[in-house]
Design a protein that fits this description.
By secondary structure, the protein is mainly alpha-helical. The protein is built from 14 helices and 10 strands.
């Protein structure tokens, strides 16, 4: 695991171009939630802590270079992006309670969201609909507010569904550990060991190892995930998001599992991961934050919030992502500014999924719409 060279601006797409209004300066974290920097980066920390977040800083966000981040674990989620079909696909996501839809144009997507009464900001529970790929014409939407609202509505149900899946794993883990370590060879012990393997904890004999596992099996605030998806994908306009369903800039060491950046330095073999659909990218992102050693500080902040009975604060957890980019705390400051400027921590508080009640939109070969028509089968009945 590690970081690699930067991608070129042409590969990243428009990262924040005109999308981030001015925002007030960031609030200071209470001492008990502040990341504990190592001595070798303390000088940089003092410098970066004084970065102003208003005025010229926010005005220059579009000029920031692309970022680097730690390589995510394999997790078996990578794949090539299949060619988009003309018709939408509607089916329940296995085990996830979502209805999958394939809507290749912005016009079709807006009609689907209108059928679902799904607006931005959401006015209530979010329809459990999984858009498999970004509309191919999303970068052509010139109105900033419209493009942002589309992007956030695409990503939000995916994040809520993945958080719910992790929350269910956490509840199961706490139940398995309620009376200590289950006996060796028991069904409970086997379930526990399978979960530990999935989260990269190799032995469970010590209480410290079990606490480490509990720290890893936890949710990521939707406000943080949406802000990072917006920042890393240029609000869904980057090449990697459109061609590879990669919302978070995850890398891979295998060219066969990704897209090669146009400006990759000679002799390097890394690629930007391609995913079969957007939800796979969201799942890999959560797994990355929950298991990679680079994000131990994020997990420590989250554990302290849990221990204090406090809600998961997106800005507080963002402070643990300084290693996601070589820009360090400047990257954190930009991420926190996106959360505040778009009021994500307020808009997303307490949201949950609801059954989609989806209606399918079918596009003809000529590009016109022949729908909507009601969904049939299990997909329409999947609950939240």
């Amino acid at each position: 695991m590690g970081t690699g060279p930067r991608q070129g601006p042409g590969d990243e797409g428009r990262r924040g171009e005109g999308l981030l209004p001015a925002a007030p300066a960031g609030r200071a974290l209470p001492p008990e939630l502040r990341p504990r920097p190592a001595w070798w980066r303390s000088a940089w920390g003092w410098l970066a802590a004084g970065l102003p977040l208003a005025g010229a800083f926010l005005a220059g966000l579009a000029a920031f270079p692309p970022v680097e981040r730690a390589l995510p674990p394999g997790a078996g989620l990578a794949g090539s992006s299949p060619a988009g079909g003309a018709a939408s696909l509607a089916a329940p996501w296995p085990g996830g309670g979502l209805v999958e839809v394939e809507v290749p144009t912005v016009a079709a997507l807006e009609r689907l969201f209108a059928e679902l009464d799904y607006r931005w900001p959401p006015r209530g529970p979010v329809p459990a609909v999984a858009v498999r790929r970004l509309p191919r014409d999303l970068p052509a939407v010139q109105e900033v507010a419209r493009r942002k609202a589309l992007f956030l509505r695409i990503v939000l149900p995916l994040v809520l569904a993945e958080d719910r899946r992790v929350a269910e794993e956490r509840r199961a883990l706490r139940a398995l550990l309620r009376d200590g370590l289950p006996p060796a060879g028991s069904p409970a012990r086997r379930r526990l060991e399978a979960l530990a393997r999935r989260y990269g904890v190799r032995e469970l004999g010590s209480a410290a190892a079990r606490r480490r596992l509990l720290r890893r099996v936890d949710e990521v605030p939707p406000a943080l995930a949406l802000a990072q998806a917006a920042m890393e994908s240029g609000w869904g306009t980057s090449r990697f998001a459109l061609e590879g369903n990669n919302l978070f800039g995850q890398w891979t060491r295998s060219e066969r599992q990704g897209l090669v950046p146009a400006r990759r330095p000679e002799g390097h073999r890394y690629a930007v991961r391609a995913f079969p659909d957007l939800r796979a990218s969201v799942r890999a992102y959560l797994h990355n934050l929950n298991t990679h050693r680079a994000y131990r500080e994020l997990r420590a902040v989250r554990a302290r919030l849990r221990a204090q009975g406090r809600p998961l604060d997106a800005e507080a957890l963002a402070a643990g992502l300084w290693r996601y980019s070589q820009r360090g705390l400047a990257y954190v400051a930009e991420l926190q500014a996106i959360i505040r400027a778009n009021r994500l921590h307020l808009v997303l508080d307490g949201l949950r999924l609801r059954p989609a009640g989806a209606r399918e939109l079918v596009e003809t070969p000529a590009g016109g719409l022949t729908g909507p028509r009601p969904l049939r089968g299990r997909g329409a009945a999947m609950g939240g």
